[in-house]
Amino acid sequence: MDPALSDDLDRLPELLQAARDFAVQEVSGLDNRPVARLGKAPAPDPLPDGGAGTEGALARFADRWAPGFSGSAGPRYLGFVTGGATPASLAGDWLTSAYDQNVSGAAGSFASALEHETLGWLRELFGLGEEHHGAFVSGATVSNTVGLAVAREWLGERRGVSVTDDGVGALGPVDVLSGSPHSSVTKALSVLGLGRGSLRRVPVLPGNREAVDVERLDAALDALDGRPAVVVANAGTVNTVDFDDLRAVAALRERHDFWLHVDAAFGGFAALSPEFSSLVAGLDEADSVCVDLHKWLNVPYDAAVQFTRRRDLQVRVFHNASPYLGLPGGDPDFLHLTPENSRRLRALPAWFSLAAYGREGHREIVERNVALARRLGERIARAPGLRLLAPVRLNVVCFTLADDPTERRVHSLADAVGASGEAFVTPTCYDGTHGLRAAFSNWRTSEADTDRVFAAVERHCAEPRL
């Protein structure tokens, strides 16, 4: 055995304790470290011939790379839609690596059974029925891709062809209709061979909305003359967290033939709160559902789930035919349900967080984040140099400069806020106007954090160079 590896084996408890102590130091310092690191990273070093062992590697990382890592796990990182990692989910993530389970199949371990239990908890959390079967994937992009892959197979079933056997060319023209699709949907259509051009954008409701106009969707489906289609509905758009009327969209299936996929990447968590659960009414009527867990469930990257009513079609798409893997019968192994064979036990961090805090604990995170988003929105609405681009509907504040919100000025504001180390927000363009998004989804964020974010934005929006 290599001497460094042999020494590490002998000192394993000590080394794990050192890594634990370093992690505690870093996590405990989140409030004081810069939220974003915008400087130039070190140039790559050559691969060492002789290793330094774990202790030496940790020292090298702490000196060279750790100072440049962002505070994205902390309370004032409001870019994209990014959660943190609850204490319980962090513990679960560490144990995931420690156990290093092979969860491609159920043989030889309880790990797959734990994943099924976790999926059952999540299905209940989001108000889905038992006919929805799920699997863990890496993120919302893969979740949407899996859901649309099953939809693609359904289109083949409706047209009397097998996409699995004959390829996507056997389908002929494909129509995917949506009002405000996330960019991951068009990426998925490209990956699946359906093509970005298969997406048909349906007009949204008037009055500063991103929700699809159901009457216009009805007309668009009617124009297909009975040809089966796919409808991608939104439960929480990224700019303004608008929700399609899922029940009304689903009701269109009484007259039209389409697969209903719902992108509920973070908006699905509205189901946890009685005040907001009506926004996702009808989610259980979807044929496939995407939910991202490293957003509002606050588990470490990477973790998401996908659910579908047609697991038989899912197996048809993702079945891995090999003598040593067996045939998927009854309750198929997870390797027959997603693109991955090799996969880590992503369910364990989610299981820990759900077991530790339950429905009520995660409901509190959702409701606190919404209250904080409203707090920031109210302060921005009163600030002379800023204005809201849309109402604060849930947990995202979409805003811009009050005067001359050009792309250069808005991006300069985002850069200045990030360079301050106080907060991080991401640029967007909404209804033709350049703006910024502050997305609240971290379990740590408080009123004091929100006020620090506002102070940083207000201070820098007044800078002459903008």
Automatic annotation (TrEMBL):
Pfam families: Pyridoxal_deC
Any Gene Ontology biological process: carboxylic acid metabolic process
Region of interest (Disordered), residue spans: 35-54
Alphabetized InterPro entries for the sequence: Aromatic_deC, PyrdxlP-dep_de-COase, PyrdxlP-dep_Trfase, PyrdxlP-dep_Trfase_major, PyrdxlP-dep_Trfase_small, Pyridoxal-P_BS
Cofactor field: pyridoxal 5'-phosphate
Domain of life of the native organism: Bacteria
Gene3D superfamilies xrefs: 3.90.1150.170, Aspartate Aminotransferase, domain 1 (3.90.1150.10), Type I PLP-dependent aspartate aminotransferase-like (Major domain) (3.40.640.10)
Modified residues (N6-(pyridoxal phosphate)lysine): 295
GO terms, molecular function: aromatic-L-amino-acid decarboxylase activity; pyridoxal phosphate binding; transaminase activity
Alphabetized UniProt keyword annotations: Aminotransferase, Decarboxylase, Lyase, Pyridoxal phosphate, Transferase
UniProt KW Transferase keyword: yes
Protein family per UniProt: Belongs to the group II decarboxylase family.
PANTHER family: GROUP II PYRIDOXAL-5-PHOSPHATE DECARBOXYLASE (PTHR11999), MIP05841P (PTHR11999:SF70)
Protein name in UniProt: Aspartate aminotransferase family protein
Record organism: Streptomyces triticiradicis
Highest classification ranks of the organism: Bacteria, Bacillati, Actinomycetota, Actinomycetes, Kitasatosporales
